TrEMBL record:
Residues 1-23 are annotated as: Disordered. It holds the Pfam family MFS_1. This is MHS family MFS transporter. Residues 27-435 form the Major facilitator superfamily (MFS) profile domain. The chain crosses the membrane at residues 67-88, 100-118, 124-144, 165-186, 198-218, 252-275, 287-305, 317-337, 343-363, 375-402, 408-430. PANTHER family: SHIKIMATE TRANSPORTER. It comes from Rugamonas apoptosis. The keyword Transmembrane helix applies. It is a multi-pass membrane protein. GO terms for cellular component: plasma membrane. GO terms for molecular function: transmembrane transporter activity.
Amino acid sequence: MSIASASAARSQAATGEPKPQRSPRKAAFASWIGSAVEYYDFFIYGTAAALVFGKIFFPAFDPATATIAAFATFGVGYVTRPIGAVLLGHVGDKYGRKKVLTFTLLLMGISTFMVGLLPTYSQIGIAAPILLVVLRMLQGLSAAGEQAGANSMTLEHAPAHRRAFFTSFTLSGTQAGLILATLVFLPISALPEDQLLAWGWRIPFFLSAVVVAVGMWVRRTLPETPAFTEERADKADRMPVAQLFQHHKANLVRVIFAALVSVVSTIFGVFTLSYAVNTMHIPRSTMLTLLVLANVVALGAIPLFATLADRIGRKPVFIFGALGSAALIWPYMWSIAAVNVPLIFTFGLLLSGVVYSAANGVWPSLYGEMFNTRVRLSGMAIGTQIGFALGGFAPTISAAILQPGAGGWVPVAVFVTATSVVSAISVATARETYKVPMHELGGAVS
């Protein structure tokens, strides 16, 4: 019997409380729906930044500068994510995963709804983009704790031999949120330009109130995880973050660099959408349709790759996803520059729908298993959010390094390739954990 299990048994005998039960399906579904709600809110902002915000919040700039400024407001949400990761990671590791997941859902819903209420630059001047940035920062605080909390919750409820499969539902929920956000924007984007800019863009933000209500209803009865309950009975550390930095620095650094693979996602979902529509003049509906189809494919691919990771290990599946994405970004961006719609769909679906899903579906278990229960939420939240910060600013960086002419996209492809390769190298140095029992996770690299 492990130390944690023995402590839990003593606590149970002393208090008479029943042993906490695993609820893997309920935890997976609650994580799925919560992530779908959270990232519906998060992604409608990215779509609006690519298609609308430059025109209504930064109209005094020339179009290229306005696009960069709009992308910067998208990226600024990632600045507050490391701060939120420290705060919410501490709360989640000390007081419970469920408290964090309730708070993040409410904060994201309120801040997203308020974006829809914002007056534009023509109405209140410079105060409009300032308020936009403030609300985006609140979204970032929320997102910092959501995925790490949901991943920790699902991982700790999952059966030992299917941890990757069950934790992958968090990322499937993220994809579902992106699908929902894009589907909502499809009819909105078809509005005449004046109506889109006047009122149409607000509708997806107002609808966030509905999806948040659904998420809160689903999560209301989710039990705390057995692993956390046992640790709390064993008097878990008062300062989990201090414990993290003292004993888990190497794995924290690995997660930071591994999380750079997120650059692929934001380049695909935000930058190339803007590049295709605003620079290459490909119809908005065409690119939004591609985003929907890619994420529909990902919904099927993510659990399949996660199942494979439960059989052969986390590392080979993740590394395949990272290096495959590094290669496929080249033909995908070339096809956009060539305005070749059939190839755009072919390479876009392969890149985002299939290959990137290998890394995206496996990282919840891969990162979570690098830490023990006492610091898991903090380790995942802080590590991913620092790494995701570069992903958040990737569209801004890409818009700045984009060159004129037929080959102007090449620096962007180099940037994506470099970050993906760094991510793969980081994971290659990690311990393989797919056969390691829960109470032994967080140990040294073997």
